[in-house]
Amino acid sequence: MASRIRALLARIARSYVLFVVIGLVVGLAVAPVAWDATSSEGTVAVVPVSGTIDGSTAAGVSSMLQQARADPDVKAVVLLVNSGGGGAAASEELYLQTKRTTNEMPLVTSVDASAASGAYYTIAPSDHIYAKPASTIGSVGVLATTPQELEPTDLVATTGPNKLTGGDDREFNYILESLGNAFVGAVFEQRGDELSLSRSELEQARIYSGTQAVQNGMADSIGGRQAAVEHAASEAGLDSYDVRVMRPDGTARFLSRSNYVASTAPNKTMVSASYLYGESPSGPVFLMVPASYIEPAANDSSVAANDSTGASTSPARVAVTGGTHVA
Amino acid sequence: MWRELGKRVVVLAVTAAVVVAVVTGAPMLLQSDDDGESLQNPEYNPDDVSPDPIDATGTVEPNPDPAADGTGTVVIDRAHSNRFSRADIEPLVDALVRSGYEVEFYTQGDLATHLDGADAFLVIDPGTEFLPGDVQDVRQFTGNGGRLVMVGEPTRTTVAATLGGTSVQAQESRLTTLASSYRMSVDSQYLYNQEHADGTFKHVLVHQTDAGDVEDVDRAAMYTAAAVSARGGTVLVRSAPNTHKSGSDEVTDEYGVAVRRGNTLLLGDKTFMSSSRYRVADNEELVAYVAEFMIEGDYQGPSGATTGPDEATDDAANETTTA
Known about the structure:
The complex is a heterodimer of chains A (327) and B (323). Chain A is 44% helix and 18% strand. With 327 residues, chain A is of the alpha/beta class. In chain A, strands 1, 2, 4, 5, 6, 8, 9 and 10 form an eight-stranded mixed sheet that branches. A four-stranded antiparallel sheet of chain A has the order 3-13-7-14. In chain A, strand 1, helix 3 and strand 2 form a beta-alpha-beta unit. The radius of gyration of chain A is 28 Å and the shape is elongated. Chain A starts with a helix and ends with a strand. Chain B is elongated. With 323 residues, chain B is α/β, with parallel strands linked by helices. Chain B has a nine-stranded mixed sheet with strand order 2-1-3-4-15-14-11-8-9, sandwiched between helices. In chain B, strands 10-7-12-13 form a four-stranded antiparallel sheet. Chain B contains seven helices and 15 strands. In chain B, strand 5 (156-162) and strand 6 (165-171) form a beta hairpin. Classes of the chains: A alpha/beta (327), B alpha/beta (323). The A-B interface holds A 66, 69-70, 72, 96, 99-100, 103-104, 168, 170-171, 173-174, 176-178, 181-182, 185-186, 188-190, 200, 203-204, 306, 309-313, 317-318, 321-324, 326 and B 30-32, 34-35, 37, 39, 41-44, 48-51, 53, 56, 156-159, 162-168, 194-195, 198-203, 242, 249, 276-277, 280.
């Protein structure tokens, strides 16, 4: 009996069958890994732009875009936008970052709840903009508190007549106008071929729905995140690709409840308009947000209670009604 | 032995050098050099982005008709919660005083008494309507050769302090009763122009018309102005082309902002003549025109006066127009 078993083993050992079986087992085990290693031609990086655009937001998004540009695996970027804008300088920083990115690789945007004002500034260089019917897009313009008339006074000594205010309110309007011209000029530089709006119409700073935006050229197509990812991959020539969702550090701050609800940011919070203006603004604050976003009644319960009595206001409230602000 | 040790040291050094070169060089080779390229931003060309401010260098030099008597009184209304400051009227007052005229304020009492002997009555942005008796006094004044200048404003939003904090309120020019008795009206909406403006769209540029007698106002600036109109009157100054009324974004026109009807002048903005704005563009010429219009008033006392044909005897004088 033992001799027969030894003979069988010897035969198996001499045949190729065993090695074929072992080869199949090993091959099947290794194949998925090898497939993964060879099938992806590149990565589509998804960069969220969530909440009010301030210095922190701008730094986080800029960092993610820089990482995407520096990573040889990343062949395209998708901006996932859910913001009503924010500070003017921070919005301009993001515009420059997205513009730099589009110079290097395809960049496609998917607008979630909104891409208004400074957020639209951010996405203007995109190769393609997807919006949903319920998205809100537009509000291309700048608003600011106006400087207070403080001269002449002996309360503060200065070396020049404009040291306190920076200039009179007429000059201030020219400053504000130059910010607005830069904004509108940038939008036309990036999307002039697509826009059916005239410069004057764009300057009126209207908000549009996603479908209206597709009609007037502020967006390109109706679609969601998946469409944007697929479009970005196609633009990059990727038949097979990985998707890497990048996450910024810190908390996304929202002025708009609709944006807050739509956001998938893991850390998010609502803030009142005073986050942008301060409690008692002492000087000009340049903002790229729709005035409706800084209506305190929309998201500040304490102020909303006062508003119900008709006896409350704030710089933001006045901005909405056009009293002392320029929008 | 030392030779063998030296070989090993050389090998060690070469190995270390290779390691250092690989560790430091590889990331540099892998790193994208795109960020090193400068980004071109032609859309931010300063000459295209920064508008050139309009010059503000003029002086008000009234040049009234030689027939004007060179002395007299202008009464300024202060009895109807009028919203203007000293700075708003100082250039105009200065021009009147330099022309030999006195300026008085009417704050209360019988209006006819105050106007008796005056050459012109100036009403700026009243917060309350004129009562019928006052309207009659003014009409009698203009009917006797006195000049009336009304300055309105569009409805504005203001912040007012209250016991509960502050509130946002609409502030209207209450000129309907007085202006409509002259078949004139002031619009409630403000004008804006995105192409022809002094800094921002609400600061519209305006120009004289061929029909009126305003001269040298090729370009003036008005600051949140209202359109004005007068049935049977003459438009003296119009806004630049493509001016909008607020709330009518699709409609543009050249709206009248200064109209004259007989002895009455109606303007749609008070700020153009303020201390900080009267030098802008040709504003000083428009201020001079207003001063001349008042100086050239030739009021005759009620005892020997005749009623002006276009006003007091007008059957339709009591019609109320929409303001």
